[in-house]
Amino acid sequence: MSGELSNWDILDFCKKIKIKLDGGVVMKDQLGTKKKNYTIINLESSTVGNGGTHWTCLLHQKEGWFFFDSYGVQPSEEIIKYVGQFSDEPFAYNSFQIQHYNSTYCGWFCLGLIAYVKHSPLSFYDSINEFINMFQETKLMNNDKIVQTYIKSILK
Q1: d(CA 147, CA 18)
Q2: Pairing of strands 24-27, 38-42
Q3: Which of 31, 71, 101, 138 has the fewest CB atoms inside 10 Å of its own CB, making it the most exposed?
Q4: What are the φ and ψ backbone dihedral angles of 99, each rounded to 5 degrees?
Q5: CB proximity list for 56: less than 8 A, separation 6 or greater
């Protein structure tokens, strides 16, 4: 399992594990105006033209919204504006870094989170916390192996 993923790789994986990305795989400035449950977001702008470099995801369920960045970075203005259209719902994000800066597994962390939340019997935010707590705080490069093991387990 290699680290770097294309948008096509992400869509193929979702098809394999029967997860519908109703928000699709989009650039951060292409979120639109409709409420979606699962969206993978490339943090590059569509006007940059280099295909982007970092995958994040935005999840929505009846309990609210959650933005996930494996580097623990706050959501961009575009994402805040998109979620702000639905201001009556809570919005949270992680500030916990689980990906090493030399790792290319950001897409796998996003797919792992979406799969975990989708299949967990826990509440929305509890399942997110449980997923994030699987990873180490200090030896970040070990987290690539942890997410690989989890992904392989759901492909069986």
Answers
A1: 18
A2: parallel
A3: 138
A4: -110, 130
A5: 40, 41, 42, 43, 67, 68, 69, 70, 75, 106, 110
**Edge-to-edge strand order for the sheet containing 38-42?**
24-27, 38-42, 55-61, 64-68, 91-93
CA–CA gap between residue 99 and residue 14 (Å, rounded): 21
The domain locations on the chain are: 7-155
Spatial CA neighbour of 59 closest among 18, 111, 5: 111
The pLDDT of residue 68: 96
Task: Provide the pLDDT for residue 117.
Answer: 95
Instruction: Label residue 72 left, alpha or beta by phi (over 0 means left) and psi (-120 to 50 means alpha).
Output: left
Average pLDDT in the chain: 89
Provide mean pLDDT across the span 10-24.
Answer: 89
C-beta separation of 17 from 3 below 8 A: no
The encoded tokens of residue 55 equal 């995958």
Of 51, 52, 43, the closest CA to residue 73 belongs to 43
Q: What is the pLDDT of residues 60-117, one digit of tens each?
A: 999 999 999 999 999 999 899 999 988 788 899 999 999 999 999 999 999 999 999 9
CATH number of 7-155: 3.40.395.10
